[in-house]
User: What shape does this take?
Amino acid sequence: MRLIRLSPRPFRHPRSVRAASLVILCAASFTLGMGNPQGSAHEAQAATSATSPTPPTTGNSATSPQAPAAGCPAADPNLWPFGVVCGRDFNVPSPPGAPSLVPTITTKTTTRIWGSDPFMEAVSVTQHVFPAALPENAPNETNNVPDRPWGLTLITPDDPLTGISAVPLLHFPDDAPILYVTKNGIPKITLDEIKRLGDTGIVRANNIDAFLVGAAANSAVKAQLSAIGMTFVAVTGSNVFELANNVDKLYGSLQNPATGVPQMGVSASSSGNGMQDVFIGSADGNDWQFYLPATHWSSHMPSGLLWVHRNSIPQPTLDALKRRNGRALIYVWGGPNQVSNAVVKQLDQLGAVQRISADDPVAFNTPATTTPVNISIAFAKMFDPAGNVGWGELGPGHGFTLVNVNDWQGAVASAPLSHLGFHAPLLVTDNPNTLPAELQAYYMAVAPTFLNSPGEGPYNMTYVVGNYQKLSWPLQAHVDYISEMSNRRVWSNNNGGRYSDSGQ
Assistant: This one.
């Protein structure tokens, strides 16, 4: 029998009053010794926190799982309607046999790749991508989707141009994720991860274990690697233009030894049309911020990453393009303020050129201003069949990587997330606490919806890279909230789509 309430619902106290009442009841219960003693202790702790809040801290501890003594949140009734909880009731251990793995914070549709510095960020990525739980001689361990990497790419965290230039070495046939070292050696966190990963060696590169790029090719790093039995090759240059050219030559010699140039579709089993894709970015000022999304594509598909000045093309870049013998498909990142039209005209003598920017002469009467944020969205949406370039993500069922635009180290280190697993394109934000309006709109447009059951899928996943100062916890929670599955049949639901909305 169902009981139907005919009388009006009784008045309920505002949550703030109810929370205060709860504190009093919890305190009374503890004083009288009622209930489970352990539970009473937790309730007393909550009561103390709610009545005498301490100011929140702005950091996070990488070594201690417990909240810092002064780290209890403020008693905001909109966030803590029933009283503040401070500290944890339990901690998640690392897996047996992998004691160095660090548990991370996930939600339904987001995964935090945490790190307060570049060394931690890179290690968090490799720990997420490579479990390294199988022995080196496991079946298929050196084929396609390995449990361990085949090699490593080591760089220093002090130069965005060098870091971006190194990314092509990450892709197959190297499978060499990025870790950070210093100009004076390998820090413990990186050395420990190198040992945990236990790379198999890059067979097509004389079985070496590591590429040392730029300032990472120093005597201290070499000595530490040699001491643990690792082999390596150095890739350097007198400037970033020469360095990028040398990376291009080395990667090309491994990926496509027939011509020495990276190429799409070098075998019958590979997707692609034989085009030789090249990405061009400006090396001036902070123009590298517009170029960051190219790193994640370069980790996903063979391509060259080269540099120009805003108004000129250095000789090493010309040399790299001439190696393509006119077959280069050249993608210039940014608008005329990043790479001038004069440079684009000169590049057009060496291949077919198009810009990747926020502008579209068909869509906009007034030229649109390109920013690091909207160029990352534009590239996530675009697909060019000529070069088989672009993610073409116009609907749900995909992964994304979200990085603060000022955190180039996190963007570069997270490139393996586009190489294996979700193959997540890079999105950038210029605000650690709030999504820019255009990024909010894109997330809403690609949010998944269902027609009959949420079990139909598809689902989205966003990797949130960095600590809570680079990308805040409320921001991560908001991305989770707007990425959740919703009912497309609800009359007011005008966001999202289905997997078929994306297409290439």
